[in-house]
Amino acid sequence: MTLNVGRARSREAGTCLLFFLALSVLPSCRATADRPAHASARDVALARETNETTGRVPANATLETLLRQNNVPTELTASIITAVRQVFNPRQLRAGETYRLTRTLDGLLREFRYPIDPDRLLRVVFRAPAGQGQPPFDVQVVPVAKVVDVAALDAEITRAHSSLVGAFDAAGEGVQLALQLAEIFGGEVDFNSDLQPGDRLQVLFERVTRDEGPSSYGDVKAAVLHTGGRSVTAIRYLDSDGKPAYFDEQGRSLKRQFLHSPLPFEPRVTSRFSYRRVNPVYGDVRAHLGVDYGAPIGTAVMAVASGVVESAGWAGDAGRMIKLRHGGGYETEYLHLSAFAPNLRVGGRVEQGQLIGRVGMTGAATGPHLDYRILKNGVHVNPLAELSRMPPGVPIAPEALPEFTRARDETMDVLRAQLAATPPHASDAPARVK
Description:
The protein is an alpha+beta fold. The chain is built from eight helices and 22 strands.
């Protein structure tokens, strides 16, 4: 009997204790419910399940050497290389390209990713665990997801940003877009010497954003260059062969027989064509039969027109020199080169804009530069004056002109609308698209 009473009292005391604890906890719970979640809740840090290694492909690396440098076992590396060969050449890695290797915390491989090009990605995905009769990994070349947006830019040449690259950089765009425009207008303008403060360029272009790899640029849809009191329009349109090309507002091709410059547009003119110039090496007065472009050693030199290589070798005071023969009785010469392009050979054909050599200071030269010359019917002529006399490009066929006019007007309307929504860069002046 005494035992039963003790147990009853014990249960009663336990019940009271639980009731007391509940009362002491409830206000705290009620206060927590009344406060904002961010004031009391704490983020729970979840343990990582994998480690990622991101690096850049070293010079002369292959996929095999890259995996070994990342401590992938030899047998597994050999199996991966064998499988990758079915979809991609494992020796064709691009130096400087970014790759990513994912491992579990205990060191097991989970994934390897390498961008083959802007549109394709090599993926090696490891199974955990591998199924019966299945290889331990899958190898795939998958498309890179991307979004293409159409954007507009109004950039001005100023004293602070006196080059196309500088103006585009000030406007937040990359050098690749500037290079595209230099190529489009290469037959109309010498970006080495023609641009002046107050000139501007308005452009409608594609911006490509990718899930893997850096963003880039797609096609330039249209552009208007205002320089030297004139405006030059470029409209992207398919030519008679169905290939994309650029035409002015009247439907004339912007492609000329000669580019205005054999160099990228950053260099400067350091000496012009003259029959009487004090030679900086010998100190006497003699003819200078070309245009000198000051540029760093190694700067790319391009063929200004399609043609055939007449000579490529050492030429005394001219140093390493290339001579090309073009149509219409024209020849061009490129002096003081530091190197010739690979596979350049006498008798071989080159295309307009093709790399033929590199700037140097070989022969009689006081500094790195390119001496560029034009001959017409065997006589040296002033390159800058001769280019200004060359005829405009081939026009669109009359029967195709109405369709071109419609496409031109639609594209220019989009450019105007985009510019109206985007303030001009480096200037408060209103857009002047025609």
